[in-house]
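Appendix C: a fully annotated inverse folding record. The material below is reproduced so that readers can follow the format used throughout the book. The structure is listed first as tokens, followed by the designed sequence.
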């Protein structure tokens, strides 16, 4: 196994993720959420969808799937771990990333391409980019509003990887589609090896999809997995 793409009941972006990774020359295998052995994986992707129907709370049930013990083990030992959309929600529920994802500010499902600005290159998602790069990436979510209650009591800010902005790179309420704290679109852990991103880079890898800006993000991830000894 090279990259494990975890599938939960309700996941619907696993084939998109595997296709995009294959397009970049990487090998990925789909792993069912009841599997409890990811030995040999050099990277992990938690793709988008509606794990367990998003019942109770997004990611709250998926967090207890057997595979998550392995995901947490690998993530904490430095294996590149990427959560996209619903996968981002699961990483937060599992405590691997700070904060939580709640309903969008306007209580509407968002399905459109947005502009994000690279804030840090110190992560498995952005190592091949430059700070300030503007990327066009599809956003598809209802609970994509990233909140960070800990910021209220002066806790350190998370490692912000991407922020929503307009085509000029300016941030602000009008450029923030879902109300996320500080227009945050993606965050990483302190080491940059665990990343959660709300927009879908795997849906922006070919011209026919309208944008290829997701390629550089997934190329960063694939490059990070290539340096891992399984």
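Designed amino acids, in order:
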């Amino acid at each position: 196994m090279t990259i494990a793409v975890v599938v939960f009941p309700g996941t619907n972006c696993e084939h998109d993720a595997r296709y995009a990774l294959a397009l970049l020359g990487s090998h990925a295998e789909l792993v069912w959420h009841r599997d409890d052995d990811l030995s040999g994986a050099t990277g992990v992707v938690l793709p988008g969808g509606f794990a367990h129907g998003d019942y109770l709370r997004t990611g709250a049930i998926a967090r207890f799937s057997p595979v998550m013990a392995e995901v947490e083990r690998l993530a904490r030992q430095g294996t590149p771990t990427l959560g996209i959309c619903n996968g981002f929600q699961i990483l937060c529920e599992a405590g691997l990333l700070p904060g939580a994802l709640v309903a969008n500010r306007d209580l509407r499902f968002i399905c459109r391409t947005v502009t994000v600005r690279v804030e840090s290159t110190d992560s498995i998602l952005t190592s091949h980019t430059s700070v300030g790069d503007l990327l066009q990436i599809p956003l598809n979510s209802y609970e994509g509003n990233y909140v960070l209650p800990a910021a209220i009591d002066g806790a350190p800010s998370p490692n912000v990887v991407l922020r929503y902005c307009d085509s000029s790179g300016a941030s602000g309420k009008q450029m923030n589609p879902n109300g996320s704290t500080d227009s945050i679109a993606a965050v990483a852990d302190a080491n940059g090896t665990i990343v959660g991103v709300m927009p879908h880079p795997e849906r922006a890898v070919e011209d026919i999809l309208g944008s290829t800006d997701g390629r550089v993000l997934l190329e960063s991830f694939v490059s990070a997995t290539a340096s891992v000894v399984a």
